[in-house]
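User:
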Amino acid sequence: MPLLDLFWSMLWFFMFFVWIWLLISIFADIFRSEISGFGKAGWIFFVIVLPFLGVLIYLIANGGEMQNRSMKQAADMQSAQRDYIQSVAGESASAADEIKKLASLKDSGTLTDDEFQAQKAKLLA
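Assistant: Predicted structure:
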């Protein structure tokens, strides 16, 4: 019988952490949503006072929207990270900007006409 007790203890332990994760996800989604402040306060109150019923009703009412908000936040974070990495790496916006830089170097005499044409062909390829 002790093995069965261990199994049930582990099951309840993991279910407790799933419950905590679910509550954190729901609270994060409530604050991420675009409902009014009173609506957010109402949902928070409902989830705290009647936790199982509140969570179940919230998931039924806003489950699909929860996923959409989560996917939008992930896409926004990925876009912000990509923009940050490109800005730190110093990559220029386009080949036209690079050609303008090469033209200014050619005009100042730093590049010869052959070097300018070679670099321009490399950028356009």
